[in-house]
Each structure stands twice: as C-alpha cells, then as structure tokens.
User: Fold this.
Amino acid sequence: MTFDEHIKTIKYVFPKTIPIMAGFTFIGLAYGIYMESLGFGPGSGCIGTQLNCFW
Assistant:
C-alpha cells in the first residue's frame, strides 16, 4: 500500500471508532472516580490494572 492509501484508510476508519473510544473514556472515568472514592490515589487504578495484565 502506498502512503496515500494508508491515509485514505485512516480517514475512513477513524470516524467509525469514535463511539468506541467515547465508551471506553466514560468507563475509564467512572472506574477512576470509583477507585478515588475507595481511597486510592490518582493513577493507582492504572498501575493495578497493568500489573494484573502482566502477572
């Protein structure tokens, strides 16, 4: 594929991914607020999630 075909593909696909990205953003924000309400600091949910994925 040429560079122009890659750009054309990205322009076609990106708008279709926006609803999915918005959903994950909302879920991530809700999870962060929940972790904060349990007394965890900002970012600790991300670290815990990463450790669970790799162990």
In short: The radius of gyration is 17 Å.
